[in-house]
Design a protein that fits this description.
The complex is a heterodimer of chains A (260) and B (379). Chain A is an alpha/beta fold. Helix content of chain A is 35%, strand content 19%. Chain A has helices at 40-46, 71-84, 97-108, 139-144, 150-157, 163-180, 215-223, 239-242, 244-256, and strands at residues 4-10, 13-20, 25-29, 50-54, 90-95, 113-119, 201-206, 227-232. Chain B is α/β, with parallel strands linked by helices and 379 residues long. Chain B is globular. The chains are: A alpha/beta (260), B alpha/beta (379).
């Protein structure tokens, strides 16, 4: 299923949007790495859904408006985006920083949303269980710590990135620092509002996540009013990359059930 | 030329072999490697050396701020400045500098400097820095907002020093209903402000602006880079419509002098190598957290680093590149004069103790500098 890439304009901000498939709308919110390539997981979803994968402001090919300064700003921007794009009945999937973003959006206004899938989201903290410090890790170390199965890292490391790709990585890294450096990977005012997300939710977590340890999964399940948890063994921080088919199957099942 | 005897106060008893097993001598170096009994002795000896500089005729003595590192034992440099005030009477005391973005209320910095200025009856030079990249890891401060926080804190401090209080200040990062400094600074309108920097173009443009004309100190760079940053400062000043004075250009450099070049290298070679290879050792991710510089500056840094290559720096290489001045009085003087001819700089910040250099050699180095070099630098 080839993806189309288009441009959205929301409040003078140009957003690069990848889309594929048709059916009910699934909005995928990417994590700190941006959208360096179209994933097999996206193809699997696009078989039954209209999948939208925007690049957040400050990432990849999207603009970087200086007035978006925090995750709450980014969430408010996305509420503008879904309204202006006329999206409704949205199933939102977020990974890592994108999962944090999904939660920030939904505690504010869930009217246009139908369900939530969280893939190892950031955004809340478990005292005494620190996240991995991907800001102090070197590039190879950071990449390897994303995966349980090191062959994923090996394949990426085997290809030298182009100058353009390096520029995008640098841009993404700056934006990630803006949103996630302090407090590190959470908003202290998020957890207490998670009960507002009165939607069916599925939380999927890698049992070997070195960025957001699996201990975080339990707190998400506890705080979300209607959440199911799936812990995947032999899986790192990107379950939809490392176990694309398994995760896609779980998501399909979930969306076909309560969420429809 | 204005002469500053500057000190980093390194923790010399550091077990270098143990330290090398860790990612860096900063941030993550386990503090069990610090022995308080040895450390207390280090403070005493380092302060003695700084105080001694007054008797030798230096214009100023200088300290600075670094956190969570064996490289320098001064997370709170104003504490050291306060001790120095009590043991000196004439010399200026330069805090080079305090890292403004790292604090959540810059008024405390304004207050501390004002206190020191009163305690010393106007001998304080206030250095403002952003802190190096590692300090954004150790303090948790978001490097993305480093420049914003620096500028806002600077504005707040200068206004607190100069405007009648109380007045309100409401910025994006710091918001105070009452700014009303007690005490006010002793010097009028306020202590001189110096800007030590590794030479980012943003900082040069800001420091040289006619509203500020702050002396700009280039720290720990090769001779060519020092010359380039001084030249950039001068060019900026001309674009702003004025000629930069020599008092606006400073150079901070490790210096060691002995009777002959050979002897100087033999005595200080290892020490200068420990400064750059062991005490300054940081990874790229620590030095350059995202947002600490513009994307453009960061890309320049990445490519220049790639050109430099890895590996340990040698004393020879550091001398060759003009990063350190080590040699006979004649050699060192020639190095200083060469830079003076190239850039017309007017402030020399001499790091006369560095790395593991012993007290004995440090004091002899200071004596040699005062006797053999200083007289030639008096304009």
């Amino acid at each position: 299923m080839p993806a189309q890439t288009t441009e959205l304009r929301v409040r003078e901000v140009r957003i690069k949007l990848h889309r594929a498939g048709s059916g009910p709308t699934v909005l995928f919110l990417h994590g700190a790495g941006g959208v360096p390539q179209w994933l097999p997981f996206f193809d699997l979803l696009a078989e039954d859904y209209e999948l939208l994968v925007p690049e957040h402001p400050g990432f990849g090919g999207s603009d970087d408006p200086p007035w978006i300064r925090s995750m709450p700003d980014l969430a408010m921007f996305y509420l503008d985006l879904v309204e202006e794009a006329g999206l409704d009945g949205i199933h939102v999937i977020g990974n890592s920083l994108g999962g944090w973003l999904a939660a920030e959006i939904l505690i504010r206004d869930r009217a246009r949303f139908k369900s939530l899938v969280q893939l190892a989201p950031a955004g809340i903290r478990v005292q005494g269980v620190p996240c991995g410090d991907n800001f102090i890790w070197g590039p190879e170390e950071a990449l390897r710590n994303l995966y349980y199965d090191q062959s994923f890292a090996d394949r990426i490391l085997a290809v030298k990135p182009s100058d353009e790709q390096m520029d995008v990585m640098l841009k993404n890294r700056f934006t990630v620092a803006k949103f996630g450096w302090q407090p590190r990977w959470y908003n202290p005012d998020l957890e207490k509002w998670l009960h507002r997300i009165k939607l069916p939710a599925l939380v999927i977590w890698g049992g070997d996540d070195k960025i957001m340890p699996r201990e975080y999964a339990g707190l998400w399940r506890e705080r979300l009013p209607d959440a199911r948890l799936i812990l995947l063994p032999e899986c790192g921080h990107l379950p939809h990359v490392e176990h694309a088919e398994t995760v896609a199957r779980h998501v399909h099942d979930f969306l076909k059930g309560a969420a429809r | 030329m204005k002469l500053v005897s500057f000190h980093l106060m390194p923790y010399r008893p550091l077990d270098l072999e143990q330290a090398a097993k860790h990612r860096s001598a900063w941030v993550v170096l386990p503090n069990r490697l610090y022995d308080p009994v040895k450390g207390a002795e280090e403070y005493a000896r380092h302060i003695d050396a700084l105080v001694y500089a007054e008797a030798l005729g230096f214009d100023a003595i200088g300290v600075n701020e670094h956190h969570q590192t064996a490289y320098g034992l001064m997370p709170a440099p104003n504490l050291i400045a306060s001790a120095l005030i009590q043991r000196t009477s004439r010399v200026q005391i330069a805090i080079l500098g305090r890292a403004l973005p790292l604090v959540n209320n810059p008024i405390y910095i304004a207050e501390e400097f004002a206190m020191l200025d009163n305690l010393s009856k106007g001998r304080i030079i206030a250095g403002f820095v952003r802190g190096i990249g590692s300090e954004y890891h150790s303090s948790g401060t978001n490097p993305y907002f480093s420049h914003e926080r620096f500028h806002e804190a600077h504005d707040l401090i200068v206004r607190a020093w100069t405007e009648p209080g109380p007045f309100p200040f409401h910025g994006d990062h710091f918001s105070l209903q009452y700014v009303n400094l007690w005490p006010r600074p002793y010097q009028s309108p306020h202590p001189p402000i110096w800007i030590p920097s590794q030479g980012s173009s943003e900082t040069v443009a800001w420091a040289s602006h006619p509203d500020r004309k702050y002396p700009f100190l280039v720290t720990f760079s090769s001779g060519d880079l020092v010359a380039r940053y001084h030249t950039t400062y001068r060019e900026r000043a001309r674009e702003y419509g004025y000629e930069a004075a020599s008092e606006q250009l400073g150079w901070a450099c490790p210096i060691y002098i002995a009777e002959t070049d050979e002897r100087a290298r033999a005595e200080a070679g290892h020490a200068v190598e420990t400064l750059f290879n062991d005490f300054l050792r940081q990874t790229f991710e620590m030095l350059m957290p995202p947002g600490y510089t513009s994307i453009g500056s960061m890309k320049n840094f990445i490519s220049s680093r790639r050109a430099l290559g890895g590996g340990r720096m040698t004393a020879e290489g550091l001398i060759e590149s003009g990063t350190a001045l080590i040699g006979s009085p004649k050699t060192v003087l020639a190095g200083i004069e060469r830079m003076r001819e190239r850039t017309g700089f007017g402030i020399l910040v001499a790091l006369l103790q560095f790395g593991v250099l012993s007290d004995e050699l440090t004091l002899r180095n200071m004596d040699m500098f005062a006797a053999e070099v200083m007289p030639h630098l008096r304009d």
